[in-house]
Structure formats: C-alpha cells, structure tokens
Amino acid sequence: MHERLLPASPNWYCSRCSDTNDKGILGFGAKNTIYLVDVTASSCVVVGELVGHRERVSGISFCHHGDLSHICASTSDDGTVKFWDTDEKVFIKEHKSHQNTITALHWSPVDKNLVVSGDEKGIMVCYWYNTGDTCSFFPEPRNIFSLSCSPHTWNIVAVGYKDGMIVLVDVTKKGEVVHRLRGHDDEIHALSWAPTSNEEGLHSRPDDITESTNGVSEGAEKGGYLASGSKDQTVRIWSTAKGKAVMTLKLPFLKRRGSGVDPGVKERLWLTVHWPRSKPTQLLSSCFGGELVLWELTRAGKQRWSLLGGSEGQNHSRIVFNMSSVLLPDGRELLLSTSMDREVKCWDLSSLDCCWTLPTLGGFVYCLAFSPVATGSLGLGVGDSMVRVWGTLGLQNRYDTKTFWQGIKSKVTALSWHPAREGSLAFGTDDGKVGIYDAFSNKPPQISSSYHRKTVYTLAWGPPVPPMSFGGPGECAVHSLYSCAGEGVILQHDPRRLASEASDIDTLIRDTNNIKHKLSPHTDLSWKPDGRVVAIGNEDGSIEVYQAPSLKLLCSIQQHHKIINVLRWHHQHGAPELQHLLASGSSNAVVYVHDLSAVIESPPDSPAVMTEAYRSLSGHTAKITSLAWSPHHDARLVTVSYDSTAQVWDVLKEEGLCNYRGHRGRLLCVQWSPVEPDLVWTGGDDFTVQEWNVSKQEHARPPKGKKTLELREKSKSKAKKKKKGTGRGVARAEETPPPSLRGEGDKEGGGAAAAGEGPSEDDEEEEEGSEAASTRGSSFTARPPSLPVERPTVERPAVEKQPSGGKTFASIKRDLKKEKAEPSSSLKKRKPRSMLPLSTSMDHRPREDLQQDILTLATARHQGPPAHCVPGQGEHIQLGLFANRQALSRMFQEEEEGHVEAGHYDCMVYLRLWSGDITGALQVATEKGELNDHLLSVAPMAGYQVWSRTVEAYVKQLCQQESYQKAASHLLSIHKVYQAIELLRDHQLYREAIALAKARLQEDDPVLKALYTFWAGQLEKDGHLATAAKCYLAAGSAFDAAKVIAKKNDVGSLKTAAGLAGVAGEVELSRSLALRCAKDLAHAHDWPGAQQVLATHHSLLAHRLHFCTTEMLSACLSGVDGVPQASLPSHPWASPVLGEAGFLGGVREVWGREFGVGEGDQEKLQGLRQVLRAVESPQPSPNIPLKQLLNHLSLDLTLAALSWLLGDQGAALEGMWRGVARAREAGLFSLVAETCSLLFPRGVSSVRVFSSSLEPGQEPGWLSSRSLEAFVSYYWLYGLWWSLIGERRAGGESQGTDGPRSLAETRNGSATPERQNGEEEEKVEVLAVKQNGLAEPEVCESSTPGACVPSQRPQQQEEAEGRCRAACGLLLSEPHAMHQASQRAIAEIQLRLASMVHQHSRAQETEPPAGEGQASPPSSSTTTTQEATHPDSQESTAATLCAGGDTLPSLVAMVSQHHKEVEGLPDDVKKSELPDIMECCLVILYLSQSCTLVGAANQTLARDLLTRHGTTSDLRKAAQHFLS
Q: What is the pLDDT of residue 813?
C-alpha cells in the first residue's frame, strides 16, 4: 500500500533480533512487529510487516534451506515462538512450550526442521517444524543469553549464559553437555560458528592461548571454531574439538569519530560477533562506541584489526546489537548491522564501505513539515527526542536523512520551516522548549529564553505584531515565530533575538478588542499564507479570526464543540474564490470548511459570528489530529485521525476520494508532497512514516466502526498494567542496576537525556516497557535460597561480677535499649512507661545495695558527698531524687539521655517541661516531630515568638501527616489567614479554602476571586461544569460561567447559558447562545420550543421570522422527496390555507398576525433584512443534507418576503429564484416542482405579478423573473404530460408513450418515461399529477394515443391552450438553445482533452528512462525538465493517442470557436438561466402526440431547434422518432 516507509527502530539488547535469508530479505524486530526489508548493494525497500506478537519481539531467525528460505521463526516476551511465511506475510503456526521469558533463538543451518530456543531460567526447547514435536532440556541452572546451532553437526548447540559460561549441548542425548567453555567472566552477548569445520590456519600469539578448563566429556568428534563476544570486552575463539580457547581478542580503545553523541554519555557495552560465510579467516565484532571491527585471524603482530567505514560519518554513533550477512549473486557479501543510534547500515565486506543507511524511528511521529524553500526536504518530529530532515527527492540515496539531537531532552512535538530562509527549522518539545536549527550546519540550536509550561503543539511563522512590529525598516524581523502550547498561551518569539523575552499575544488581543472577560485557552493557530489574518483555535471549540497586525477580531466560528486540534488555510495559487477557505479539525470526527471571503475582503464593524459551515466532511470515527491541503489541486484535502486512517476529500463535492489504511496505530500528522500530486506522507504512533499514492488505494471512505480501535486500546492498557504489576523484570533494591544501565531502558527521563546531552535513549511509553525488560544484564547474582546464611558471632566483653550479684548502671541502660528493639507482643495492657526508668531500676537492686545507698545518702546530707560519689549522676543516679535540686537536675539530664538512646522522646520532652525548660522541650519536640496539642497549649508560657514558631512547626508536622484542615486552623491562631488559605488550596481542598476566605476576608479581596477562578479551572478540566459555572459567577465573571455551561452543548445547557448571560448583561453572548439553542430545537422539529427561546431577545426577531418560514415550508412540503412528517406538536399557523398570493402571501399574513411585522415600519423591515443577509448561506451543493437544504431554502424565501414587504420586487424575485435554484441544484425534482407550485399557484401569471412593477434598470430582477417564468412553465409542461400518462393508465393501456421523464434520465440515454417497475412508475405519475395541481386523470374512450386528451370544459381547455402557448414561447428560445449547445460542446471537448492527457501521461510512465536499464521511474524533477525541453514531442504523442484522429491544436481551435459563438450572444442570454431547451423540445413533441394543446408552429419550431442544436448522441437518439 505504501511507496516508502521509515520503520520503527530495531529492539535493543537482544542476541539475535535481526537476520537475513538467502533471498536478500532482512527481518528485524521493532516493538512487537517484524519488518521485512529487501536488500541490494545499492538500496533497500521495506516490503512488509509481520504482526501478531503481543509484546516485544526478542529474536528472529530464518531457515537457510532452499525450499524453506522464506520461512522465519520469531520469539517474543509474550512467551511464544511463532513461524511466518515472509513471501505472503502471513502467520503459519506457533508453540508455547516456554514458561519464562525467551532470550535466544536459532534455526539450525544443517537440519531444516530444527528450531532451538532458550529462556532466562536456563530451559532449552527443541522444536521440529515438520512434525510439531518439542523436547526440553535443562543443561545448566543459569540465565541463557545467546545460543547458536552448529553449521557442521546438526545435533550440537552452543549456549552462552549470563555469568560468562558457554556450553556445547548434544540435543540427541537429552541435552548432555559435551564441553563447558570457561574463560569469560560476564554476559555472553553473541555466538558465531566458523563457516568451515577445519580448525587449522589461525595464527595465535602465546599470550592469546589461555589455559582454561574445559570439563571435556566424550562427545563431538567433528570440530569447528566458535567465536564468542562478552561484556568483559573480549572476543574469544574456541576449538570445539578440544574444548578450549585458542585465541583471545581484546577490543581496541578507539577515539570516538564523528559528532553523533556526547562522549560524556556512558553506554553499556554490547559486544556482538559475526563470522562471514565467504571469509573463514576473518571475524567481525562490534566495539565500544558503535564501530565495527574486522579481525584478521591469520595475521601476526598486534594490529590484527581494521575498521569498517573509512570516511567520516559512515560508522554507527552508538553501540551495535546485531549483525547478519547475505551473499549476492556476484559473490560479494553484504553485512547488515543494527544499532542504538536507530540506524540500519549495509556494508560491502570487500571494500569495507557503507553502501546505504536506513534510518528508523524510536517514538511517535508527532509532526511532519516540508520546507517551502528547499523542495523535498521533509522535517520529522519524533518522540525519541530527535529531529530528522529527510531529502525525499534523492536519486542515489532514497533515505538520505540528517539527524539533530543537540539541545533536545524530550519529545519533539512541533516543527515549522522558515518561509524564506533556507534551512531554518523551528522546533517545539514536550517540555515546553522552542528553538531553531540550521539544517545545513552541525551547530547547536538557538533556544528561546521563554519556555512554555506544557507541551508545544503548534509552531507557525507569520508577520510580527505589536510590540515586536514597532520600529523602522530593518529594526524588526520580517517574520516572527509563534508557538502554541498546552497551557493555552500563544507566544511571539523574535527569531533574531531568541534570548529576549517572548510576548503573549493575548495582551494585544485584549487591548485591541476591549475584552475584559477571560479568554478561552488557545490550542492551535494558522496564519493565512498572505499574512493578512490569523486563525486561532480554542479549547472550547471556537475559532477566532484576527486581522494583522492589530489582531482585531473579524469573526468567531461557533461550529465545533470540542477542542480544536488543527487549522489550515487553503493555498493561494488556486481559484480566487477558494483562497479564503479555512479547514478545521477537532476532537470530534467531523472536518468543517468555512469560507471567510466576506469578512476578510469586507471587514465588519463588529465581529461576526458564523454557525454554518461552507462544507462538512464526515466519515472519520475518531478525533481529527492533522490535515493538509493539496498544493496541486483546488479544494482537495487530506485528513488523519485516531481511527488509524488517512482520508482524501473533494471538498466542494463533500465526497471521499480515497482512504489509506496502511498504519498500525493512530495517525498524528500528514503532509502532501510539494512535487508529486499523487503522493501523501503520514506519521503515527506506530513509530513509522509512510509515503503512499492516492490513486492506488482501494478504499474510498474510512471504516465505519471504531469498536476495534477502542478494544485495541483497552487491551493494550490492560497488558501494560498487568506487566507493571507482575513484577517481572522489576529488580529488588539490591538488584537495581546502576544509573548507566537503568537509563538504557527507563521510560521517561533516562539515559542520555538525564545526563544532559546526546540523543535520548528513552522511547515512547509503548516501546520502552519492553526495552526495560531487556536490561537483564545486571551483574548482581542472587544467593541460591538453599544455601544457609552464616550469622557473624559477636563477642561481648565480660562484665565484672558485682559482690552483691546486682546489675550495673551500664547494663540497665542496655536493657532499656533492648526494650525498644524488641517490643512486647503481649495483648495484656501494659503499665505506663516510667518517666524516670534509670533511677527506678537502680532502686530495684538487691537489699545490700539499697542499704549501701542509705548510708551514702546520709553521709552526703550530713558530712558532704563521699569521694567518687555524685548524687544524681552515674552509679548514684537514684540519689538525685533525695538530695538537693542540683542533684535532681543531674538526674534529669541522665534520664533524658537514656530516653534519647531508647527513642522515648516524649518522656524527654516532659522532663524538660517539669524542669521549667519550656523552650528546650519545644525545640526537642519540633526536631523529633513529636509536637502535639498539649505542648502547643503550654507554648505561650515561653513567649509569643516561641509560641508562633512552635505553631508553624506544628503546621508542617500536620501537613506531613495529611491533617491539612487542622494545620490551617492552627495558622489562624497566629493570624496567618492568607497562609492558611494557600495551604488548603495547594492541597486541593478548594471548597474549604473558599469557605475560610469568605469567612475571614473582605468581599472584594482579590484572593477570593483568584480562588474561585482557580477552582473553576480545575472543575472545568474534570468535567464538573455546573460547579465551575457557580465559581465563575461568584468571581464576577458571568461571561465565563455562561461559556462553561454551554460547553455541554445540549439544549438544556444552552438554554441555561443563554439565560445566565442575559441576566448578567452579556447581551451578545446570550443572543449567540439562544440562537444556537433554537437551531438545535429546530433541527429536532421542536418549533414551539425554538420560538420560545428566540422570543427572549428582541434582536432575534429576524431569526424568528426565518424559523416561522422554515416551519411553514416543512409542513407544506411534508412527504415530498423525503421531507419528514412532523412528529412533535407545531404551531396552528404552520399549515395555512394558501390563496392566489401563494406561499409568500400566507407567510406575510402569519407574520402580521403573530409577530406584528407588516408594511408599516420600513426602517424595521430594513434592519430585519440586513440581519438575515449576514447569515452565512453557502453555494448550492448536490450532496447537501435535506434539513440543511430546507433551512437555506426558507432563508431565501424569508428574504424574498421581507423584500416584498419593502416594495423591492426585484430583490423578492432574486430571493425566490435563489431558493428554486438551490433546490434544483440538489437534484430533488419533485421538491422543486412543489416549491414552484407553492410560490406561484397561477403559474407564469403569479410571477408577473411581481415583475410588473420592476423598473427597466433592475437587470437582476428581470433576469430572475425570466428564469422563474421559464422553470414554472417547464414544470407545468411536465405535470401536464404526466397527467396524460396517468389518464391512459386509468384507461387500461399497457404501454406508455415514449418520452423523457427528467433531464437526468435524458442524459443517461433514456427516452422513455416508464421504469421497469410499473407499479413504482404509476405512483410517480399520480404523485406528479397531484403535485402540479391538475385534475385526477380520467378514463379515455379512445384507444388511440394521439386522440386522447383530458376531459375538460371549454373554458378550462382554452385556459390550458393559452398556458401551453405561453410556455412554448418562453422555452423554445433560439439564443438560449445556441448558448446551451455551445456549453455542451465545450464540455465534451474538455473531456476528450482530459482523456488525451491521461493517455499521454500513462504512455510516459511505461517508457523506460533513456540510456538506463533501471526499473525505478525517473524523478519528478527530471520528468518536468524533459517535458519543458521537448514540447513538440509531447504534442505529437498526444495527437497519436487521441481517439478519432483529433489533434490537440484542432481541439483547442474548436474550443476557441465555441467561445467566440458564446461571446456573440446577448448578455441577457448568457446571464439568465433556463431549463435545458433540448429537453423542453422533446417534452413538447411527446406532448403533441397525446393532446391537441401544442400548436403546429410550436411543433415545427421544436423540431428545428432539435435539428440545429441537438448534436450529442443522446439527444439524437431521443429525437430520432420525430426527426426521421
């Protein structure tokens, strides 16, 4: 389906996630998809995808046997091994023998049916493809990292483990280990066998040979070298026959080449190896920084290696994960490599040069942008924190891409090229950064000093507006850069001085338009290409158009009701009437196109409100994310949506042209090729950019249902939650890898982005969940649970035995600590903890010790303390309670220290309180978080300052305990009201914060208003619109309250919002909302409800008259051409009895009786007409919905009735003609006929009642009168003819008279009014009789068709003959017949010219390029040059291809001749519109066969006109009966 495709990046940290087959097909796993690439020495093409795995693809391997080379196997983290047919891109079968994550896979090169896989628990599974049998082995209880089947012996498999062990397993002996190869001490990343089984010829230095143990058991007799790459930075060559290493290659430390990455970024090493099939003495390996090293195994000396990619920029810039090779028919071998730099490279192993590079994408493709200066340069903004510029017109390299990463630390969400400066590319990021890159240099970007707070969604270049537009010539930039972000702000940046502060354009909008209310957050902007106006989309679904440079509001478009996602102006090089089209897409699935020519060309004094779209494009089933106008066509649009499709529209016809369904996820961006009219580019969340042809798509419309997409999203979210919750791959605290490893797999903020520079290694959320699991290379090895834990033996110092056998003071303190460490588990109520535990314990010693204490205390009180005795301290702490106050203080100090060591801080605090140190007690409680209400109550005893600090500390403690209301109450006690309010608000207790503010602050305090506004914004985001409206009302912003209520967009909400705005004095808003509500009610045919809503505003009287007309017209046309029957009650005057004045007469009567509108007040009538003329009424369209058609038709008739009341008969005729023409353009034949019957019940006479009072200079009125007379006569003739057919049917005729039924059938070549279904024809004919007001058909006595005439009285017969003569006189017009014949001839010649050009272009496409035998077509630029150089050859080719022998000059001459004939006709003939004269001639001639009303002269004139001007084959066939 696609032409070119940039695929998703290959998965990282997998031992074999890419492989090639013998046909040159490269397959690699990216996310949960396998991409297939057709590889040649000069280029590559992505030929398909294999989709079926639910989680990350961890391995892929092709079968390398001729008859099965198109079959591949793949493994995934979902635990399955799947088999695919890569030719048909279909799934074949799978097996689920593994119970753990699969880490390695290989298809045996010897046995075409053997597929071997291994998992992280050490289980190997052998699967036989032909029988489906499986066999499991458990050779080692270790984590398998890689495995490789021997190309020499089918039953030998080499397995590499995470701890560095390599084993050779014999799968025929129940997994018996043949050799254990020890030498590596870290993860085995890759294993590769030598292509030959001969183990001779390698040159080994003495220091290369390692005496490693091999643990050889009897086994393999055949040998073959095996290469292994390990995380320990070495490559080892093993002899599998001897079971030992024969060579060790240490990676060279190379100077980092190129500027692809910051050298300060640390990367985890991944060492992969590959043994080329054509070079058995050479080995390829990766290196530290992405270099590829070719080792010459037979070369002596130290320099055994050489680097691939001799020139600058050829090598990878990050570590390489996988390598595979393919042999070409000419004997060359190509090497394919995948890397962390997100590039797939192809190398020619004969020259060691890079043949081509395929860039891949590591994130959502958020934006695409073609350069307006450097044609074909496509900018890509991707979620992997990089900007790419793709030269899409390159002939040699079709994927010529340059990558920019400096200065970017998050997803790139917006791009915009400078309209005049080549290479200047502006970008916006997810973290709110705006910058400008020079695409032709490697310099870091310029970064704007003004950051957005949220994601940048849109960037646009436009003319500067104040204040940046101030200054003389040369002082200000020609273009400013505008950025719109998620917080709803649009900033204007000066590209010459990005370091200066950007300006918010909302300030200018408020000042220019005198806006006091809150502006709706902006979501998108688009400058018109000529820079005159800018369109801004808002969060509430409105679109505002401003005039530059003052940003005066011209109009507001109230069409969408959800957030605006994208706005785009039509290009300026098409038809002038299309240059003012604005397309918009929002979060609903409909795209609206508005024609703003009226407000741009003639700016109104006050802003206009538009509620009707010029065109509506419906078909998508999810929100619109982007759209683009075709620069090659007029009014052709492509849109993309969350429904995973791109849709191309013909806007004028409101038809879908094609639907592209090649993406596997939601689409986010789209661009039309600036060179190829048939090429479109799209990007989405499947990590791909796809180029596709419009003309090659098989679908025309998007798929109808969106349930599939919703289920897919739900299943994806469930899988992510399940994966997150299972803990698989989530390391324990001691198992967490170092930051350098974790950054390679983290979702957000990891990797190089966290380090500061370099391209970020974090992909999107959808990818990196699987990438994180791949960082299984943590060096930590858990202790097996079966091993016992040795506890260290602690030798305690011996305690000197006391004479009395009691405890010492030190042992008592140790016991108190043990109480804290070993809390009692008893359920019995414990005694309260003692405040003096040390002294109390000393009083519980043996009696001898207590008696000694008595003697010591007595001595101290009467004689003084004895030597080495300090009461209240140390071993005599217990005496402090009985000695003086100083001794008590010392005892308290000892007790406090004991409490601190035991963790009893509350007891320590109370001791300080008792001792009178209130400040110290509060300080300790504050430091330890032990403040409570009691301590706070005694804090005032230490003074006001201490109390205030304690309250503040207690507030912080309460916040940590999430007791926010209590914390705020304590702040009130120290008179910090504002801080208390702020505390409640910061913790989302908005209701409590407002209650406190209203209770303690003044009514006009700005804090209260800010609280209401802030809470309203949060409620609005959460969808609580009613409460948000109350908040806005309380804040004094009734305008915002009404806007919020109206967001729900149902009738009740709109009515409430309109009433609220009216009460608050917001008259304009109330009027706008009331009109929207009334339109919704009218759409549901609730006419009384609509009139009731409109009656609340006197300024909406004009719309009341319009709705009245619509209601009456719907009642009169009920049942005609699908007009629905009224299901709800309507007004009594809705179905009036129409007199000779017709429908408009009935309307005038109802207006005068019900609304008081009559001929008396001319000024009032002028105002009403002016209001209705401002209502947007788009041009007629064939696909317009019926309800919309009736609405526009009634608007035209309302204007006609108002003009009639004003005495302006010319405008009245113009209005009636507009309505009739509108219905006729919609193709509703019966509806037009009934409308004419309602407006002109007496036919042409009724029309002339209006035209009789026209002045000679009123040309539009006369032209409208002429057209109306002609069409009234036209439909009267059809009614007469149908009535005759009905009479013959009533008379029993079995066959009807041949004659055309309508213009559409005549164009299709049908010259008979009958349909194949006779019953349906009869119903149509009878219905036509009733619609035209004729009598029911009577039974005809004669059986001759020519003699059958209606049974009428003489007076009626005379009147019918008069009407018939008048109709023939109006319709049989020679000048009009000539004009229409010329137009038909011109249209036919244009069709022939288009066919000639199409055949010529197809012939050029099939011709091969001169001098080359390549299959690819030449580029568009080359084709254009050739066409410009050889115009004569083009013309001759077209002449030979033209059917019928016509040449291009002859056809052009014929067109010129017809144009001259048209120019020679009178102006009134060219301006007036009449029915098809040839059709009228046929109707008159058929009518003359059925009745005598048509005179001979008119019959002759009809035949003459048919002879002269009926030149087309259809008309000749229809008139053959009369002209033969």
A: 64
d(CA 535, CA 568): 9
| Identity of the residue numbered 1444 | G
Mean pLDDT of 417-441: 94
Range 471-475 contact pairs with CB under 8 angstroms and sequence separation of 24 or more: none
**Torsions phi, psi of 1444, nearest 5?**
85, 0
Tokens standing for 1493? 């009303």
Of the candidates 187, 149, 184, the one whose C-alpha atom is nearest the C-alpha of residue 168 is: 149
Q: Is the peptide bond before 467 cis (omega within 30 degrees of 0)?
A: yes
pLDDT tens profile 1025-1047: 999 999 999 999 999 999 999 98
| Angle between helix 990-1000 and helix 977-986 axes, rounded to 10 deg | 160
- Spatial separation of the C-alpha atoms in residues 935 and 922, rounded to whole Å: 7
Residue 863 burial (C-beta neighbours within 10 Å; 0-12, 13-18, 19+): exposed
- The token pair at 980 is 């208390």
Q: Determine the Cα–Cα distance for residues 532 and 580; give it in Å rounded to an integer.
A: 11
Mean pLDDT calculated for residue range 1247-1268: 80
- Which residues in 168-192 are b (16+ Cβ under 10 Å) and which e? bbbbeeebebbbbbbbbebbbbbbb
Q: To 5 degrees, how large is the angle CA 373–CA 376–CA 380?
A: 100
Number of Cβ atoms within 10 Å of the Cβ of 455:
18
Q: How far is CA 1235 from the centre of its chain?
A: 46
> What are the pLDDT digits (tens) for 862-895?
888 887 788 888 888 888 888 888 888 888 888 8
Nearest to 1155 by CA among 1144, 1167, 1147: 1147
CA–CA gap between residue 294 and residue 1041 (Å, rounded): 72
Closest by alpha carbon to 1080, among 1093, 1068, 1067? 1093
Which are the contacts of 859, defined by CB distance < 8 A and separation ≥ 6?
A: 865, 866
Within 10 Å of residue 797's Cβ, how many Cβ atoms? 5
Q: Is the pLDDT of residue 706 over 70?
A: no
DSSP letters for 594-645: EE-HHHHHS--SS-EEE-S-SEEE---SS-EEEEEE-SSSSSEEEEEETTS-
Beta bridge partners of 648: 638, 658
pLDDT of the residue at 1260: 82
Quickly tell me which residue has 């305990």 as its tokens.
Answer: 961
CB–CB of 126/116 below 8 Å? yes
Enumerate the β-bridge partners of residue 236: 228, 248
Residue type, 1098: H
Q: Cis omega (within 30 of 0) on the bond before 549?
A: yes
Listing from the earlier edge strand, what are the strands of the sheet with 624-629? 624-629, 636-641, 646-650, 655-660
Euclidean distance between CA atoms 241 and 246, whole angstroms: 11
pLDDT top residue among 795 and 542: 542
φ/ψ of 18, rounded to 5, equals -150, 150
Among the residues of 799-872, which ranges form H helices?
A: 809-821, 837-842, 847-862
DSSP secondary structure letter of residue 259: S
CB 1044 within 8 A of CB 1032: yes
Q: Are 744 and 760 in contact (CB under 8 A)?
A: no
Cβ atoms of 499 and 436 within 8 Å: the answer is no
Strands 320-327 and 305-307 turn out to be unpaired
CB count within 10 Å of CB 1258 equals 19
Beta-carbon contacts of 656 under 8 Å, excluding residues fewer than 6 positions away, are: 617, 619, 647, 648, 649, 650, 700, 701, 702
Which pLDDT band, with edges at 50, 70 and 90, does 205 fall under? low
The angle subtended at Cα 429 by Cα 424 and Cα 430, nearest 5°, is 170
What Rg do the C-alpha atoms of the chain give, in angstroms? 45
